[in-house]
Amino acid sequence: MTVAARRGRPGHSLDSLLDVAVEVFNERGYEATSMDSLAERLGVTKSAIYHHVPSKVELLRLALDRALDGLFAVLAEPAATSGPAIDRLEHVVRGSVRVLTGELPFVTLLLRVRGNTEVEQHALGRRREFDRVVTDLVRLAEDEGSVRPDVDPAVTSRLLFGTVNSLTEWYRPGGPLTPDALADALVTTLFTGLRTTPPDFFGKKSR
């Protein structure tokens, strides 16, 4: 059952608490992080944290949902729900890069989940659901003749998002590479080998 977030005290919002909690979870691991260590990092008492959320697991749930909700929001965008499947797939990849770069610590935490708690198992279930949607898009693009048919759609999906997810290992916001430039580079690299008809040198698909 979802627990509603509690109203925060002046000077500390739930968002700022969540930002710090995710930072510490990524540094130490969720299981190794205590409420005492979170309070120490925040410079507050544990009771101040409990004024926002009832437990550490609720912080984890909120953090994982933030990353997953962003990804599922991409799937609901008009460009991801209508038009040629290959274009929809490209939009989903671009949107996923946008979510990753905008919510980098939260996506990093999501990718480290191993299903050790009920909250983590639920998050993994939502990740599998996202993967199924992407795989179905790849399969539909293959049926439409725009994706090469010699690679299993599930494998193609894993390769696409394995590359997207690997960005958490080296991408850092504020650097010379903007999120849009990063998405352009990734899509150009991956989709050139994926499409049955590659783009020409001006970025338009050949006819």
Automatic annotation (TrEMBL):
Q: Which PROSITE patterns match?
A: HTH_TETR_2
Presence of the UniProt keyword Lipoprotein in the record: no
Q: Which GO terms describe its molecular function?
A: DNA-binding transcription factor activity; transcription cis-regulatory region binding
Domain HTH tetR-type span(s) in chain numbering = 11-71
List the keywords (alphabetical). DNA-binding, Transcription, Transcription regulation
Q: Which InterPro entries match?
A: Homeodomain-like_sf, HTH-type_TetR-like_transc_reg, HTH_TetR, KstR2_TetR_C, Tet_transcr_reg_TetR-rel_C_sf
Instruction: Show the Pfam families listed in the entry.
Output: TetR_C_24 (PF17932), TetR_N (PF00440)
- Annotated DNA-binding ranges come to 34-53
Q: Look up keyword Hydrolase and say if it applies.
A: no
Xref: SUPFAM superfamilies: Homeodomain-like (SSF46689), Tetracyclin repressor-like, C-terminal domain (SSF48498)
PANTHER family for the chain: HTH-TYPE TRANSCRIPTIONAL REGULATOR BETI, HTH-TYPE TRANSCRIPTIONAL REGULATOR RUTR
Protein name in UniProt:
TetR/AcrR family transcriptional regulator
Write down the species.
Goekera deserti
